[in-house]
Specification:
By secondary structure, this protein is of the alpha+beta class. It has two helices and four strands; from the N terminus they run H-H-E-E-E-E. The protein is 24% helix and 32% strand. Strand 2 and strand 3 form a beta hairpin. The longest helix is centred in the N-terminal third of the chain and has 18 residues. It is flat, with a radius of gyration of 27 Å. The relative contact order is 0.16.
Length: 91
């Protein structure tokens, strides 16, 4: 009698594992968009600017930059609506 209850419980547990506990499948649409893009590289010959992007309106957490330093262009992170910019001239 004890063995019968054990086998029934084990079959129930295996059935729940195979069924995924019955929860709905949630798709992460943001993770699915893994395409890359190539933008043209700006011509920094004689141009100086730096854009620093922040996560929110407190301007405390930097999340990206875009820079031209007269000859070279650099970028990292992401852009947001919260930006501080610096402009200059090249000598």
């Amino acid at each position: 009698m004890q063995a019968g209850r054990f086998i029934s419980g084990a079959l129930l547990a295996v059935g729940l594992m195979l069924a995924g506990c019955g929860g709905p499948v949630v798709e992460d649409t943001e993770a699915q968009d893994l395409t890359s893009r190539e933008d043209s590289i700006p011509n920094c010959d004689g141009v100086y600017y730096e854009h620093t992007y922040y996560s929110d309106a407190t301007y405390t957490t930097i999340v990206g930059t875009r820079d031209c330093d007269c000859l070279n262009w650099a970028t990292w992170g992401r852009t947001t609506a919260f930006r501080q910019s610096y402009f200059g001239t090249c000598r």
